[in-house]
Write a structure and sequence with these properties.
The complex is a heterodimer. By secondary structure, chain A is an alpha+beta fold. Chain A folds into two domains: 141 residues, NADH:ubiquinone oxidoreductase Nqo5 subunit (Beta Polymerase, domain 2, 2-Layer Sandwich), CATH 3.30.460.80; 44 residues, no CATH class. Helices cover 20% and strands 29% of the residues of chain A. Chain A is built from four helices and eleven strands. Chain A has a five-stranded mixed sheet. The radius of gyration of chain A is 20 Å and the shape is globular. Chain A starts with 5 loop residues before the first helix and ends with a strand. By secondary structure, chain B is α/β, with parallel strands linked by helices. Chain B has a single domain, classed as Rossmann fold, CATH 3.40.50. Helix content of chain B is 39%, strand content 10%. A four-stranded parallel sheet of chain B has the order 1-2-3-4. In chain B, helix 1 packs antiparallel against helix 5 and helix 2 crosses helix 5. Chain B is globular and about 70 Å long. The chains are: A alpha+beta, B alpha/beta. The interface between A and B is medium-sized, with 23 and 14 residues.
């Protein structure tokens, strides 16, 4: 079999679609593409290039940057054993993203999770409801401006939530090459 | 051997008669057949299952009859992380259990939220239902659960089982 590589697929994509940026890190290729084109691109990747499997779909909140959100599509090519990552950026004013759940069925729940945690609206999704939190929960908890302790909410007979006591600061890990004791989650003061 | 006792007494049943108070008798019966409602919500439930299985065997304490119907259970063992999404369901099951009923908060999460100081987790099931015994550990070993069960038995021993009922009964007659 001819040595298949991601670069041939990337050039095929670049010939048909607008690629804003291309990065490579440790053999992983990431393409930054237009939000409006993602649906056609996804279909092209699956049908023409053969990326049959959507490994993961996730949201990212780059709080303080504009555009604030990103959606990451992690694709896999079974026959050639290749990974490809697509990223689109989504601004806070326009949270609508075309769904890919009709292209890869697995995107259904992933998109619901991204909606649940970040409030990204996937247009055309068959049932865009919360997947982890309950329907009617008023916040998007993985957004960076949402406190770790949570916020109080109340839905009578359905669910409620309260802010958790964070005595001594949040329990967070610290990136460090020192001992486990320095790294592991502990009650630390926020700097 | 000549009959010397002044009262007629059938010596055959001697030893089969116990003098006690009604409270003590009821408590003794209650504490030795605690039917648990296994509220298994996380990894503590695995230890709960181990405690129910042959190696640790809470049947020795009369607590082996895991009832998945709240209407037939006496003690709710909340084993695991209670999320806010689950919290009112736990409360609803607790409300369906008939009196007298007890609650064991098994493990750090059920007792206090544990390591989950987060937006999604109820910080201790005692915010919703009254807890009799807290068991520390993450998760607690089956021995710890058995210890908790024995503490609950000791607690039940001290309860005024019939006194409350009598008071309520006479109050209802007056009312």
């Amino acid at each position: 079999m001819a040595a298949a590589s991601v670069s041939t697929h990337v050039s095929a994509i670049q010939a048909k679609f607008k690629v804003l940026k291309k990065t490579e890190f440790r053999g992983e290729t990431t393409l930054y593409v237009e939000r409006t084109e993602i649906k056609d691109l996804a279909r092209f990747c699956r049908d023409t290039l053969g990326f049959a499997f959507l490994v993961d779909l996730s949201g990212v909140d780059n709080f303080g940057q504009e555009p604030r959100f990103e959606v990451v599509y992690e694709l896999y090519h079974f026959e050639q054993g290749l990974h490809l990552r697509l990223k689109i950026s989504v601004s806070e004013d326009e949270l609508e993203v075309p769904t890919v759940s009709d292209i890869w069925a697995t995107a259904d729940w992933h998109e619901r999770e991204a909606y649940d945690m970040y409030g990204l609206k996937f247009a055309g999704h068959p049932e865009l409801t919360r997947i982890l939190m309950w329907e009617g929960y008023p916040f998007y908890p993985l957004r960076k401006d949402f406190p770790l302790a949570g916020r109080p909410s109340e839905m009578p007979d359905v669910a409620f939530s309260k802010a958790a006591p964070l005595a001594g600061g949040p329990f967070v890990t610290v990136p460090s090459t020192a001992t486990t004791k320095d790294r592991e989650p502990r009650s630390r003061e926020i700097e | 051997m000549p009959e010397t006792s002044p009262v007629a007494y059938d010596s055959k049943i001697e030893g089969n008669i116990i003098f006690t108070r009604v409270d003590s008798a009821m408590n003794w019966m209650r504490k030795n057949s605690l039917w648990p409602m296994p509220m298994g919500l996380a990894c503590c439930a695995i230890e709960l299952m181990a405690a129910g299985a042959s190696r640790f065997d809470i049947a020795r304490f009369g607590a082996e009859v895991m009832r998945f119907s709240p209407r037939q259970s006496d003690v709710m063992i909340v084993a695991g992380t209670v999320t806010y999404k689950m919290a009112l369901a736990v409360k609803r099951i607790w409300d369906q259990m008939p009196e007298p009923k007890w609650c064991i908060a098994m493990g750090a999460c059920a007792s206090s939220g544990g390591m989950y100081r987060s937006y999604a987790v109820l910080q201790g099931i005692d915010q919703l239902i009254p807890v009799d015994v807290y068991i520390s550990g993450c998760p607690p070993r089956p021995e710890a659960l058995i210890e908790g069960l024995m503490r609950l038995q000791r607690k039940i021993e001290t309860e005024p089982a019939s006194r409350e009922q009598k008071r309520e009964f006479f109050a209802s007659l007056k009312g």
